[in-house]
Amino acid sequence: MAYKNPNSILVVIYEQQTKQILMLRRKDDPDFWQSVTGSIDIGETPYQTAIREVKEETGIDILAENLPLFDCQEQIEFEIFPHFRYKYAPNVTHCTEHWFLLPLREKSAVCLTEHSAYQWVSPKAAVKLTKSPNNAQVIEKYIIVEGKQNGRT
C-alpha cells in the first residue's frame, strides 16, 4: 500500500473583490468542508503541488490562465484527524502543511473530481464551515485581517 506523504499544501481560493472563498465538501466526510489540499509528491516543490492540486480538485489551471499563486512562506505542523490516519504510514500522526493563496478576478464554476460539492462563501462563513483549524487560521490571517487593513470586512 502506498501511504500518503505527511507533507502537504493548502490553497485558499478567493474572489478578489468580494473576498468570497471557495469551499469544497469532502466525499469521505460529508460534514467536512475545506479549501484545496493535497500531499506533496516525491520530487515536487510545495509550489508545484499547489498548482497540480488546484487543477486536479477544481479544474482551475493556474499556469494556462496565468493566475497569481501566492506562497504565504508559512508552514505549520498539525495533528491528522484520527479517522484520516489510515491513509498514512503506521505511527504517523502529524502533517506539515504549506500555505498558499489564489486570488481570482471573478468566481468561476468548479469541475469537481475529488469532492462532492462546492460553494462560495464569505470569509467568516468559511471559518465557521471548515472543520480544519489550520484552514480557518489561514482565512483569518490572510483574508479577514487583510480585508480589514484594506477597509473591507
UniProtKB/TrEMBL annotation:
<protein>
    <submittedName>
        <fullName>Dihydroneopterin triphosphate diphosphatase</fullName>
    </submittedName>
</protein>
<feature type="binding site">
    <location>
        <position position="37"/>
    </location>
    <ligand>
        <name>substrate</name>
    </ligand>
</feature>
<feature type="binding site">
    <location>
        <position position="57"/>
    </location>
    <ligand>
        <name>Mg(2+)</name>
    </ligand>
</feature>
<feature type="binding site">
    <location>
        <begin position="78"/>
        <end position="81"/>
    </location>
    <ligand>
        <name>substrate</name>
    </ligand>
</feature>
<dbReference type="GO" id="GO:0008828">
    <property type="term" value="F:dATP diphosphatase activity"/>
</dbReference>
<dbReference type="InterPro" id="IPR000086">
    <property type="entry name" value="NUDIX_hydrolase_dom"/>
</dbReference>
<dbReference type="GO" id="GO:0019177">
    <property type="term" value="F:dihydroneopterin triphosphate pyrophosphohydrolase activity"/>
</dbReference>
<keyword id="KW-0378">Hydrolase</keyword>
<feature type="binding site">
    <location>
        <position position="53"/>
    </location>
    <ligand>
        <name>Mg(2+)</name>
    </ligand>
</feature>
<dbReference type="GO" id="GO:0006754">
    <property type="term" value="P:ATP biosynthetic process"/>
</dbReference>
<dbReference type="Pfam" id="PF00293">
    <property type="entry name" value="NUDIX"/>
</dbReference>
<feature type="domain" description="Nudix hydrolase">
    <location>
        <begin position="4"/>
        <end position="143"/>
    </location>
</feature>
<dbReference type="InterPro" id="IPR020084">
    <property type="entry name" value="NUDIX_hydrolase_CS"/>
</dbReference>
<dbReference type="GO" id="GO:0046872">
    <property type="term" value="F:metal ion binding"/>
</dbReference>
<feature type="binding site">
    <location>
        <position position="132"/>
    </location>
    <ligand>
        <name>substrate</name>
    </ligand>
</feature>
<dbReference type="InterPro" id="IPR051325">
    <property type="entry name" value="Nudix_hydrolase_domain"/>
</dbReference>
<dbReference type="GO" id="GO:0006167">
    <property type="term" value="P:AMP biosynthetic process"/>
</dbReference>
<dbReference type="GO" id="GO:0004081">
    <property type="term" value="F:bis(5'-nucleosyl)-tetraphosphatase (asymmetrical) activity"/>
</dbReference>
<keyword id="KW-0460">Magnesium</keyword>
<dbReference type="InterPro" id="IPR015797">
    <property type="entry name" value="NUDIX_hydrolase-like_dom_sf"/>
</dbReference>
<keyword id="KW-0479">Metal-binding</keyword>
<dbReference type="GO" id="GO:0046656">
    <property type="term" value="P:folic acid biosynthetic process"/>
</dbReference>
<feature type="binding site">
    <location>
        <position position="4"/>
    </location>
    <ligand>
        <name>substrate</name>
    </ligand>
</feature>
<feature type="binding site">
    <location>
        <position position="114"/>
    </location>
    <ligand>
        <name>Mg(2+)</name>
    </ligand>
</feature>
<feature type="binding site">
    <location>
        <position position="26"/>
    </location>
    <ligand>
        <name>substrate</name>
    </ligand>
</feature>
<dbReference type="InterPro" id="IPR003564">
    <property type="entry name" value="DHNTPase"/>
</dbReference>
